[in-house]
């Protein structure tokens, strides 16, 4: 390995490609009980009682009364129950679990349970709900003055839809009671210590009696950040009662209907423009949290920090609220609130330019933030903002300017074309001071007497390649062959808490700790001896401290940047849109493995195209999700976007390993705004589309209105 970016074969490649990797559903089931959940039929109802059928020998029924500790799944706030309390708050809210040796018998027993409900009026529409879980406010400058002095004022309401993470492996967790009274919980998960901390409280056990490890995980995309704590708690409570191991593997229908998704949003934007510059923005963001808070506060925080986009807006006010509705709780989804507000900011700014009769891209360029400018939260862009060069690269690679000019001419005929561009950043790592004040990551290296070295961190590989890339860092720093660096799936009995795998922090933050630990070990190296070294997180000293109370300071130490261009063809007869060409430039610092990082960018780009056009959860009037399978909830495949090109633009980040920054989430952010921008052009720039995704039906409706 000469350069850290040179590709290696992913360590899980053979096992996954050959089908030998053992997921939880591949475990032999001898002696293991299968658990299934009894769920609320109503979006809101008082649970008056449950008539449980007589259980055959070896079967067990567990509900809230069987919880030894708190009926609370610890996430950010304490409101998410393990099993329903007096009321069910969404369709699917778990009331109880039945477990037993034969899954079919368990299924039958569940269907024989008679739940007595008192139906209550649910709140299903986020736009009319008046219950708010969180209400944040922040700003800077003098809004009133800027609006008073403006040449133009624009307002618009923009919306984003409900999307499912669509990992290939459904949510799966297992709990095994151990002889000494401790509980072992394992499964498909992102954050072992989140599960451990939640389970300590649910089981009322001391830390040393709760043991959590990750099994091979078939994708997560944020969906396995909070939810495994809940499913883990349900199997553990049931296993505790049964005094036997219990596994629960959701089927796809349950997974789509009853697990956390991306927050739908509605935002009202207002902007002041003077001399071609956006001088002020007043933004009101609402995210639909669903029935419980789960990870909503942190998703909303990131969302509102991104709400003014990549633009330098000196006078700013942003309000962000999380709305309660009686629908499935929403949670982390790759991008963590950023995809919603970057879509709204980018689309709104494009519309301002069009309303002013200006070229969209030129208007955006004139308003871009640059190094040294203040961020929305009055922190600083400490490093170079490479967007102008990246716009140029994308323009050259896809022929944006030429195509944009061509498609601006009047188009007739059944098929019309359009091209759109969008810009975004992703704040690298956790928001605010959480890294220093809450997570306090520790990474450890263990060197054995055969001179092999094991990396001990709690971060997981869910497909993003972390367990292939982090060992590259240790190998390089220690001058050891890559194969001499060991790394296993994390187990809380063996690894220190280096924090969750979320917010694209693992490579940038924990990768850097591993690099520093490797230097320490190299400098104290004694051949043939067992040695252990540790490194602890320290916040970069250039950072302006962040206070959450007023959203003031550096929300992130640095940012990753992206530019997307998407070219589409629109069929005016069917309303279908098809991607003909797609190109993205991504700046994530030094790629720790060029292939893995490009794979992340390509996969994320495709995922964001899905969020622009086809991925949309639909409900019936009672609040039940209708498209609960992969034949009804469609996601794009490589065939849908044959000419997708991702390029890396490298600006090294001095505080990340070899210059690396957060990468994994960035590519899902910019797609929808570029897509909608392209659709508008194909429609002759006569309409302003202020929502994503856009369906063929939506396109037909627009065409019908115009006719
Ligand atoms: N890539 C794959 N293949 N599968 C995933 O589940 N999750 C994404 C992203 N890329 C994901 C993925 C999410 S939600 C995050 S937060 C980042 O990877 C994590 O990147 P990190 O390892 O740098 O923390
Ligand atoms: Mo990623 S949404 O931060 O797990």
Report on this structure.
There is one protein chain. The protein folds into three domains: 13-20 and 434-536, Aldehyde oxidase/xanthine dehydrogenase, molybdopterin binding domain (Aldehyde Oxidoreductase, domain 4); 31-122 and 171-249, Alpha-Beta Complex (Aldehyde Oxidoreductase, domain 3); 265-431 and 552-706, Aldehyde oxidase/xanthine dehydrogenase, molybdopterin binding domain (Aldehyde Oxidoreductase, domain 4, 2-Layer Sandwich), CATH 3.30.365. The protein has 17 helices and 24 strands. It has a seven-stranded mixed sheet with strand order 3-5-1-12-9-10-11, sandwiched between helices. Strands 7-15-14-13-8-24 form a six-stranded mixed sheet. The chain has a four-stranded mixed sheet with strand order 16-21-22-23, sandwiched between helices. β14, α7 (296-305) and β15 (315-324) form a beta-alpha-beta unit. α4 packs across α5 and α7 (296-305) packs parallel to α8. It is globular. The termini are far apart. The mean pLDDT is 97. The chain binds ligand MTE and dioxothiomolybdenum(VI) ion. Dioxothiomolybdenum(VI) ion binds at residues 190, 222, 225, 332-334, 336, 502-503, 665.
């Amino acid at each position: 390995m000469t350069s850290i970016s040179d590709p290696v074969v992913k360590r899980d490649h053979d096992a996954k490609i050959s089908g030998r990797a053992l997921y939880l559903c591949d475990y032999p089931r001898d002696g293991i009980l299968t658990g299934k959940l009894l769920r609320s039929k109503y979006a809101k109802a008082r649970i008056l009682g449950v008539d449980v059928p007589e259980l055959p020998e070896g079967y067990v029924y567990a509900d809230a009364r069987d919880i030894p500790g708190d009926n609370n799944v610890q996430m950010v706030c304490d409101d998410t129950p393990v099993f329903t309390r007096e009321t069910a708050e969404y369709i699917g809210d778990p009331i109880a679990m039945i477990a037993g040796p034969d899954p079919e018998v368990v299924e039958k027993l569940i269907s024989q349970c008679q739940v007595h409900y008192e139906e209550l009026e649910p709140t299903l529409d986020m736009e009319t709900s008046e219950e708010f879980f969180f209400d944040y406010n922040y700003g800077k400058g003098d809004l009133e003055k800027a609006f008073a002095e403006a040449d133009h004022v624009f307002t618009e309401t923009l919306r984003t839809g409900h999307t499912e993470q669509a990992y290939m492996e459904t949510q799966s967790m297992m709990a095994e009671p151990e002889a000494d009274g401790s509980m072992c919980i394992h499964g498909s998960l992102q954050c072992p210590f989140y599960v451990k901390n939640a389970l300590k409280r649910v089981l009322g056990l001391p830390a040393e009696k709760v043991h959590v490890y990750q099994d091979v995980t078939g994708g997560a995309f944020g969906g396995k950040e909070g939810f495994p704590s809940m499913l883990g708690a349900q199997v553990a409570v049931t296993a505790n009662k049964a005094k036997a191991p219990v596994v629960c593997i959701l089927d796809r229908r349950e997974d789509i209907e009853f697990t956390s998704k991306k927050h739908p949003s509605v935002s009202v934007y207002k902007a002041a423009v003077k001399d071609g510059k956006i001088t002020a923005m007043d933004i009101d963001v609402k995210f639909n949290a669903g029935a419980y808070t789960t990870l909503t506060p942190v998703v909303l925080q990131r969302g509102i920090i991104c709400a003014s986009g990549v633009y330098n807006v000196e006078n700013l006010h942003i309000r962000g609220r999380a709305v309660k509705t009686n629908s499935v709780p929403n949670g982390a989804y790759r991008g963590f609130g950023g995809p919603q507000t970057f879509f709204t900011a980018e689309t709104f700014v494009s519309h301002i330019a069009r309303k002013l009769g200006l070229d969209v891209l030129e208007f955006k360029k004139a308003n871009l933030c640059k190094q040294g400018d203040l961020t929305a939260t009055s922190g600083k862009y400490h490093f170079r903002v490479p967007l102008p060069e990246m716009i140029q690269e994308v323009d050259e690679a896809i022929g944006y300017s030429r195509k944009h000019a061509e498609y601006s001419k009047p188009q007739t005929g059944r098929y019309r074309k359009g091209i759109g561009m969008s810009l975004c950043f992703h704040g690298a790592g956790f928001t605010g001071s959480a890294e220093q004040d809450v997570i306090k990551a520790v990474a450890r290296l263990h060197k054995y007497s055969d001179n092999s070295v094991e990396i001990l961190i709690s971060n997981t590989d869910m497909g993003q390649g972390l367990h292939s890339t982090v060992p590259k860092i240790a190998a390089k720093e220690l001058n050891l062959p890559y194969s001499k660096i060991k790394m296993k799936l994390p187990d809380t009995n063996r690894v220190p808490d280096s924090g969750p795998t979320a917010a694209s922090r693992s490579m940038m933050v924990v990768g850097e700790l591993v690099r520093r630990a490797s230097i320490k070990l190299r400098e104290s190296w004694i051949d043939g001896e067992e040695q252990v070294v540790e490194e602890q997180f320290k916040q970069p000293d250039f950072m302006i401290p962040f206070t959450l109370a007023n959203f003031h300071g550096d929300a992130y130490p640095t940012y990753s940047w992206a530019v997307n261009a998407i070219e589409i063809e629109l069929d005016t007869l069917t309303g279908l849109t098809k991607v003909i060409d797609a190109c993205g430039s991504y700046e994530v610092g030094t790629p720790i493995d060029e292939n893995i990082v490009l794979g992340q960018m390509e996969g994320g780009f495709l995922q964001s195209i899905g969020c622009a056009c086809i991925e949309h959860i639909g409900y019936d009037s009672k609040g039940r999700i209708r498209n609960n399978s992969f034949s009804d909830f469609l996601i794009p495949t490589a065939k849908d976007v044959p000419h997708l090109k991702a390029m890396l633009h490298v600006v090294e980040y001095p505080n990340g390993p070899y210059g690396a920054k957060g990468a994994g989430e960035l590519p899902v952010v910019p797609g929808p705004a570029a897509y909608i921008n392209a659709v508008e052009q194909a429609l002759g720039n006569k309409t302003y589309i202020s929502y994503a995704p856009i369906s063929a039906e939506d396109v037909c409706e627009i065409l019908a209105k115009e006719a």
